[in-house]
Amino acid sequence: MASAAPTASSTKETTNYARLCRLLVDIGTQALRDTLNPLHPPANLYTVLAENEPTLQSLKAKRIINPTQWGKLFPAIPNSVSTHSFDTTLLMILLRNLCGFTAPLTGWDALPAVTDLSREADIARVKYFRNTVNGHAENASVDDVKFNEYWLDIRDTLVRLGGVTYGAAIDDLRKECMDPEAEDHYMELLGEWKKDEDNIKDQLNEI
């Protein structure tokens, strides 16, 4: 007996999931980058990293920073280092360890209280939402109710971090057409970043 054809709703739900992945991969990463850059301006970034190399070496020894990320922090030409090559995981590591931020009361790995609108809390929210959205990876789908809830929460977080101009970019992304190849790309990227985060947790548990 032939299997039933996919329904329109399942296609919509898959696109919902992919769109959330893209929101976090593209705009979420940029918001973290725009949070880090004013604290450690690009022109001086290589100096800051060199001054904090012992701290970063310690994180590398604990395998919180992997060899690929280390190469991006300390390229062959030191002043060529750029946050544009840093992924979400590396940006979060730097924000937590080199920027003087104090963890939210709920910690870096949990959803902060709704009343906590600090930058630290919003950095933690980006990670929380990434993990929450990735929790739908097995079925690669998010229904409209959950999609709208996630989108609004993530939008508010990224606008606070990156500024009001982020609002228009996020609204445009919500309406933008996504082809299947693009959907697969963003789903895969978000999943890879979640695996990196899980690896970090495993290393910390072994220490």
Characterization of this structure:
InterPro entries: HEPN_DZIP3. This protein has 207 residues and is mainly α. 67% of the residues lie in helices and 0% in strands. It is built from nine helices and no strands. It has helices at 8-39, 45-51, 53-61, 67-73, 88-98, 119-134, 144-162, 165-175, 180-206. α1 (8-39) runs antiparallel to α6 (119-134), α1 (8-39) runs parallel beside α7 (144-162) and α1 packs across α9 (180-206). The chain starts with 7 loop residues before the first helix and ends with a helix.
Q: Which descriptor suits the 3D outline?
A: globular
Structural class: mainly alpha
**Order of SSEs:** HHHHHHHHH
Q: Report the mean per-residue pLDDT as an integer.
A: 88
Protein name: DZIP3-like HEPN domain-containing protein
Pfam families: HEPN_DZIP3
InterPro entries: HEPN_DZIP3
Organism: Pocillopora meandrina
Chart the SSEs and their pairings.
Layout: H1 8-39, H2 45-51, H3 53-61, H4 67-73, H5 88-98, H6 119-134, H7 144-162, H8 165-175, H9 180-206
